[in-house]
Amino acid sequence: SVFHIRNWQTDNAVSLFEKTIYQLKSPLRRDLLHLEKVCEISPISGCRIIRYLFDQALNNQMASSSQFTSSFFLDNELRELEGTIENAMKIVGEKVPTSYLEIMFPWVVKVVTVVPYSDQMPRFTSDALSYNWYDSTFNIQNTFVHSIINALTQVAHDEQNIFQPISQQLKNLSYQTPQQLLAYVYSSLPEQYAEDAFNFLITDQRRYGLGEEQFDSRRLISAIFPFLSSEQKELLESNILQFSWPVYKELGLHGLRWSGFEQYRLLHSIPVELLSLKAKKRLAEWQRKFPDT
User: Fold this and answer.
1) Quick one: CA dihedral 126, 128, 130, 136, positive or negative?
2) Model pLDDT, residue 215
3) pLDDT confidence of residue 255
4) Contact 39, 88 (CB under 8 A)
5) Is the confidence at residue 6, as pLDDT, over 80?
6) Are the C-beta atoms of 274 and 225 separated by less than 8 Å?
7) Contacting residues for 163 by C-beta, under 8 A, at least 6 apart
8) How much is the pLDDT for 210?
9) Label partner for 204 (CA 20 to 30 A): which of 16, 92, 168, 273?
10) Is the whole-model pTM more than 0.85?
């Protein structure tokens, strides 16, 4: 049996393992015990196997529900594989980031856009991958998202000609995951992509609300601000000073109480010594309104 092979140093062994996985309708943890070894020896084969497993997960989810609603379907569908597939994703993402994106990025686009687009101003449409980015409660999904982030960041650093068309496609998708992916990459490479990140922010106000409690937006602004020109700093600051989320009547006094808090968080993400006098004055006003935050 291919699952009892001990020497994986031949192309034939890797090829046989890959073909065997494709014949399994529902691979179990024991079927993937050697997946890490395969990924180390032939990361391209590893990428294809991971794509097959993720295609199976998506197909199973789509077949079991007339309406795609599960936010954590990867962990639901692949929970039997937890403990075997996570390291495989990390390995191939690090060894062959360009190939990993070539094989897995179309899957990301497919699963994100399965959820019908809705105009959720002031936010982008939530999607199946836009949750649980900050902890490992749902380990497979969390590991996958961060493996894509790491691969994107590596490609953005080393191969800008490949990254630019990917980044444009991400910008054009009005869902949370594509926007957050870009925010992560730009935050990791603030000096190299300061101008791209600046244009990313000022062209769509929804990008001031990325992540839980605007975490991704705030981190991005904090990272790039020191690398912006004086004119860019002034324009970004002006945009933030004009930014606000609507106050919904149904929230009553509670809504009014917290009105402006989103702008306060954004201003607070900029080093205070880099703020203009006008922005410092506004920040002081918000600090008086929100003294316990």
Assistant:
1) positive
2) 93
3) 47
4) yes
5) no
6) yes
7) 152, 155, 156
8) 94
9) 273
10) yes
At 175, give phi and psi (nearest 5°).
Answer: -125, 160
In angstroms, the CA 107 to CA 95 distance is: 20
Q: What are phi and psi of 182, to 5 degrees?
A: -65, -40
DSSP the chain: -GGG-----SHHHHHHHHHHHHT-SS--GGGGTTHHHHHHH-HHHHHHHHHHHHHHHHHHHHHH-SS---TTHHHHHSGGGTTTHHHHHHHHHHH-HHHHHHHHHHHHHHHHTTSPP---TTSPBP-TTSS--SS-SSHHHHHHHHHHHHHHHHHHHH-HHHHHHHHHHHHH--BHHHHHHHHHHHHHSTTTTHHHHHHHHHT-GGGGG-SGGGHHHHHHHHHHGGGS-HHHHHHHHHHHHH------GGGHHHHHHTTTHHHHHHHHTS-GGGS-HHHHHHHHHHHHHSTT-
Q: How far is CA 216 from the centre of its chain?
A: 10
Asked if residues 210 and 217 have their Cβ atoms less than 8 Å apart, the reply is: yes
Q: What is the pLDDT of residues 136-179, one digit of tens each?
A: 677 888 899 999 999 999 999 999 999 999 999 999 999 999 99
Q: Among candidates 166, 176, 167, 181, which has minimal Cα distance to 127?
A: 176
In the block, which residue shows the tokens 């020497």?
7
Q: Which pLDDT does position 12 carry in this prediction?
A: 78
pLDDT digits (tens, 9 = 90+) for 70-121: 555 666 777 777 888 999 999 999 999 999 999 999 999 999 988 777 776 6
Burial 120-142 (b: 16+ CB within 10 A, else e): eeebbbebbbbbbbeeeebbbbb
Q: Read off the amino acid at residue 213.
A: E
pLDDT single digits (tens) 253-271 = 544 556 778 999 999 999 9
Token pair belonging to 12: 């034939």
